[in-house]
Amino acid sequence: MSRIATDLLALLERLAALGPLPRVKRLHLPPPAADGSRDGEFCAIELDDGSLGLSFVLLGDTLAGLRGVDDDAVVGMSSLDLARRYAESSGLERTLGFAAVNALTRHWFDRTSYEPPPAQGSIGDLDLAPGDHVGMVGLFPPLVKQVLETGARLTVIELRQDLAGLREGWRVSLDPADLGACNKVLSTSTVLLNDTLESILSHCRAAQRVSLIGPGAGCLPDPLFARGVTLLGGSWIVDAAGFKDALASGVSWSPFARKVAIRRDAYPGAEALLARASARG
To answer: Which of 98, 172, 193, 233 is placed for a possible disulfide with 261 were both Cys, Cβ 3.0 to 4.6 Å?
Structure first.
């Protein structure tokens, strides 16, 4: 069981103690026509209050399993009970649980009038310069050129053996210990689902900045900040109806969301948000 997942759920339990949480309204999936495309990578859990939480669906056979989920199995259930599956399960159940964690986080933020600030760049606000050595956890092909253009060195950590090797000006390694030589780290938020995050962070203790980014990075950042992450960057849905229509149609939903970035040194913290929620009743 992930300690980070346990810590996230403990915070949500404290929010639940202040009053009833919205229940699950619906599971939203991309259509089969979007399989294999960027528009078919995420599902969403919607709560009764309209809060939406995303989760990556392309690990193993998760997506196939989600297509077999009967709506009656999740609709109307306790959102906190569904979120608990993030810590207690793997695969399909973990994916649904994490989507519920993210949806409850959005509920929490809306309830306390906290809106994450906009992201300042697509490479995790790392402020790269010549002399930096970037560790990239998960290959982001569109970002490789951006990193190299800053004059920084780049080491990519991957699970896929077929990607390993030297490239022109950068390399792909299968050994996360190579992150120990990197002063800045950029990681895909998929590590929140595949049980590699705590191992990855154990090799980043010397890094000045550790950015965790991706549409699925919608959880409370406190347990991540406590373990060395300095920025959590995700997607903030600004038009729920447009988002749901786009996801169901298998087209890009990016026009209905904006990229946000929560910095550790500027975030009020869960304790302050809990106090705000308690004051509001």
So the answer is: 233
